[in-house]
Amino acid sequence: VQLVESGGGSVQAGGSLRLSCTDSGELMSERLLSWFRQAPGNKREGIAGIYTTVSDTYYYADSVKGRFTISLDTAKKTLYLEMNDLKPEDTAMYYCAAGVVVNGNLISLRNKWGQGTQVTVS
Questions:
Q1: Of 16, 9, 18, which Cα lies nearest the Cα of 87?
Q2: pLDDT tens sequence across 48-87
Q3: DSSP state of 42
Q4: Torsion of the alpha carbons at 40, 68, 121 and 80, rounded to the nearest 10
Q5: Max CA-CA distance within the chain?
């Protein structure tokens, strides 16, 4: 599995970014494709997931609900995260990975990570 995240950058509060994730391995065959983020000094947080086996079924953390949208282009084998109304607290490194929801929280299923893409909101 080789995950490559892209699309990060520096934006002002209220701005938007779209992150992309491509994979040369088997990520797209996973049941729940997910985005995670980690700010300095914080634990990695699962923020959004899309189920590949059930149509129109998603997971969103409360911190991003209503602002972020996850989507999947199966033909391009690319996972996206559309981020709107960005806030300084969204500043973090963002990663895509296979996920699983446990006790209402999105966590990593396989602990396999790419290099991530940095999002900075000022």
A1: 16
A2: 999 999 888 999 999 999 999 999 998 899 999 999 999 9
A3: S
A4: 80
A5: 37
Measure the CA–CA gap between 82 and 79, rounded to whole angstroms.
10
pLDDT band of residue 7 (cuts 50, 70, 90) is very high
- Rounded CA separation 53/23 (Å): 18
pLDDT tens-digit series, residues 30-44: 999 999 999 999 999
- Please say if the pLDDT value at position 11 is more than 70: yes
CB 45 within 8 A of CB 37: yes
Whether the CB-CB separation of 34 and 99 falls below 8 Å is answered with: yes
Rounded to whole angstroms, the Cα distance separating 45 from 37 reads 5
Tokens of 9: 């950058």
Distance separating alpha carbons of residues 62 and 29, to the nearest angstrom: 26
